[in-house]
Design a protein that fits this description.
This protein folds into two domains: 178 residues, Rossmann fold (3-Layer(aba) Sandwich), CATH 3.40.50.720; 169 residues, Rossmann fold, CATH 3.40.50.720. 32% of the residues lie in helices and 17% in strands. The protein contains twelve helices and 15 strands. It is globular and about 65 Å long.
């Protein structure tokens, strides 16, 4: 199969879909890999490294999209890339279609076979989301703490406090991979942390293994309402695979927060779990609503592209090779890859995506 890896063009995105090591494995398996010139520069991978791994370096991005049978990316295609999508393409990337009706319709209407990293399941795990979730969770605490600084519009409270002062209070909504990473980082900085989830089994497990500064709460409207009143930093990491994130903090609830508090919405790719959230970029990461700082960067791990690209390729490569080796009609019967298949044959294949947009869903046979 001919695999194409274009350069990411989303704002402030420096990751790339494959490392040279991943390219070497794909070429060794009998595939041709086309890499757009300079696609890996932002992650610290020179064209020469890709060439030595067996890739063909392509100057013309339109040629790459035209010749490639499978397109491997990091982020979903954006508007300048829409004309390059064609019938027969296999697309393997983060898609987050529940928050993007336009792209969903384009993939459906152009008969693209679209596999989404974020919906691929193995049991109860989301193995292609986990590495980026871990990075984003740690970043949420790090950048949330920075934006509590007065210079950035925050309240001026230091997360861990100092001798004779109270530590900050961090509320983390969602106890998955991102939520655990965020809570670990906040507790490590000396903050008092309240971690919320609806999965009591998960909360019980985390209670036994996490820092004693973290307290665990069943997530309900009332419990969240009571906790956010004293919060300095609120981190939203709630995820329903394939679907829009639920709005756990409304515009009305902002009036309960301390002025200068910070909201970090890790769920923004799926529409965000705060009603007042809207996507931002690393170049312009925050905005203010009613005196509350919002940090809603839609590609947080892109800030650390070297680490993120290596972690992502390590996770995606085995599935990439399975897709490349397997005829499409057999992929429909692959229990694991079927969970990643969001669009196929002109139909929406993921129920959560279809419901988000009121579209017809064709269940896998």
């Amino acid at each position: 199969m001919i695999i194409g890896v274009p350069k990411e063009i989303k704002a402030d995105e420096f990751r790339v879909g494959m490392t040279p090591a991943g390219v070497r494995e794909a070429v060794h398996s009998g595939h041709t890999v086309l890499i757009e010139k300079s696609a890996g520069i932002g992650s610290g991978f020179e064209d020469e490294a890709y060439g030595m791994a067996g890739a063909e370096i392509i100057d013309d991005v339109n040629y790459l999209w035209e010749k490639a049978e499978m397109i491997v990316k990091v982020k979903e295609p954006i508007e300048p890339e829409y004309p390059r999508l064609r019938e027969g393409h296999i697309l393997f990337t983060y898609l987050h279609l529940a928050a993007d009706k336009c792209l969903t319709e384009i993939l459906r209407d152009r008969n693209v076979s679209a596999f989404a990293y974020e919906t691929l399941r193995v049991g109860r795990r989301l193995p292609l989301l986990e590495p980026m979730s871990e990075i984003a969770g740690r970043m949420a605490t790090l950048f949330g703490s920075v934006h509590l600084g007065r210079y950035y519009g925050g309240s001026g409270r230091l997360m861990g406090g100092a001798v004779g002062t109270e530590p900050g209070h961090v509320v983390v909504l969602g106890a998955g991979v991102a939520g655990k990473a965020a809570a670990d980082a906040a507790a490590g900085l000396g903050a008092e942390v309240s971690l919320f989830d609806i999965n009591t089994e998960r909360l019980g497990y985390l209670r036994d293994v996490m820092n004693p500064r973290v307290t665990f709460h069943y997530s309900s409207h009332e419990s969240i309402l009571n906790s956010i009143k004293s919060a300095d930093l609120i981190i939203g990491t709630v995820l329903i695979p394939g679907a829009k994130a639920p709005k756990l903090i409304t515009r009305e609830m902002l009036s309960l927060l301390k002025k200068g508090s910070v909201l970090v919405d890790v769920s923004i790719d799926q529409g965000g779990c705060f009603e007042t959230s809207r996507p931002t970029t690393h170049s312009n990461p925050t905005f203010d609503v009613d005196g509350i700082v919002h940090y809603c960067v839609a590609n947080m791990p892109g800030m650390y592209p070297r680490t993120s690209t290596i972690a992502l390729t390590n996770a995606t490569l085995p599935y990439l090779l399975r897709i490349a080796h397997t005829p499409l009609n057999r992929l429909l019967r692959d229990e694991t890859l079927g969970t990643a298949l969001n669009v196929f044959g002109g139909y929406i294949m993921n129920r959560a995506v279809a419901e988000a947009h009121g579209m017809e869903c064709k269940a896998l046979l």
